[in-house]
Amino acid sequence: MKRNRLKQIMIICSLIIFAIEVFDTKSVVYAAEYTEKKSGYYSYIDYEGGAWITGYDNGLEYWEQEDNITWKIPDTLNGLKVVGIGDIYDRDQGGYLNYYVSIEYNVSKIILPDSISEIGEDAFSKFYSLKSINIPNQVTGIGCKAFFKCKELQNIEFPDSLDYIGDYAFYGCSSLTSITIPASVEEIYDNAFADCRSVVSYKVSSGNSNYFSYKDMLCQNSFHYKYEEYEEEYDEDDADEEVPEIKVIQYPGAKKGAFFIEKNMYLDWFALLNETGITEFTVDSENMYYCSKNGILYDKENTQLIAAPGAMTGELIIPDGIQLIQTNAFSNGSLSKITIPESVDLVGDNAFYHCNQLKSINVGKCFKFIDLSTCQNLSEIIISSDDTDYTVIDNIVYDKKIETMVFCPRGYKGKLVFPNTVTSYEYDCFESADDYEDFVYYRCDLITEWYLGEKFTSHIDH
Predict the structure, then answer these.
(1) pLDDT exceeds 70 at position 350
(2) Cα 177–Cα 166–Cα 122 angle in degrees, nearest 5
(3) Could you tell me what percentage of the chain is helix, strand and coil, using 3-state DSSP and rounding each to the nearest 5?
(4) b/e map of 105-118 (b: 16 or more CB within 10 Å)?
(5) How do strand 278-283 and strand 257-261 relate by DSSP bridges?
């Protein structure tokens, strides 16, 4: 059936989407293709009659160590108007404006010159303290990851000149509460506003022919072919008929209440990422993609768990017969106990990312697919005895032979006693890796005593 083949392709794409690097080719300027020049602390290239800033080296010596720095980008470099700005500093070299001032953590306001027409890829990515920036009136494009993870950015006003917004451009801007898309925008690339969890509404200016706001959601007109609605044979005369549907690009992360998915409504990947306000999902019975049960969103065939409401609390027992838990299905959720049936044989990336209310989980036979390291209160893990790779002793996960400690839950408290058969532990057993950041931290603060087994040979220095 063609619809099932389409869904299989979509599932595969969702599972690998974080394993590949996404580039917005419309906004990339490669410095290697040009001769880089210097003007003071700035590096730039000649680009379309102006200067495209490619880097910043050293710092403004009169700045002292302080927070809330305002950084004003010059409007000219060596007599050339500054027309664009890309990845402005080398993160591998630390990202410092000078010895005292870190771009990531000290700059709270940036002033761009009116001459800028494009904000390039990674331009201000991970400026964690950035609260305010102006977008000049002639800017036509905002590139891939331009404001990625600018967690403190509180407001953004787009000019009427804006033509496109790149992949992940505002991903993780968790302080934004409202976003208005101007009529001029023709293209919003994948996940441009994903994980903006404080947004309560998306608005689109009248006159935009590609996007619109519907019940506070950012949406796009789409369609499916008539033949996709048929389970078996169909009339070829109407097979290619286009049926209009609403494609939800982004659901407002902080909007509270039930979410009713209408007949001709389809959710883009990451449309629901890290939403915190949905209390339940309900679905029109004629929707060809989804169904719901007890407030949980499933695919139409009841084989995939798509998403659990972010505001749902208590215990969830996933029905037997579910085979796949989709990417980010429970991320930042509020459930305290989850039971996964043994029918589940695949779990998408970050399905349990920062489930900080989760205290107990029965993973069935799919532990090898699950990352639970960011669940800060998790203290109980149950694994099926039929799992051929892993076992659990006192809520600690070991390999089946009980020779290697595999995972210690972050909420584990008290004494940690290694069985005598254990000789080592996996390198990330006690680590909590944030998949959206660049650091790994240790999580042994609740362990009061360590008792190593007789055969243990590894060194614990956490």
Answers:
(1) yes
(2) 90
(3) 10, 35, 60
(4) bbbbebebbebbbb
(5) parallel
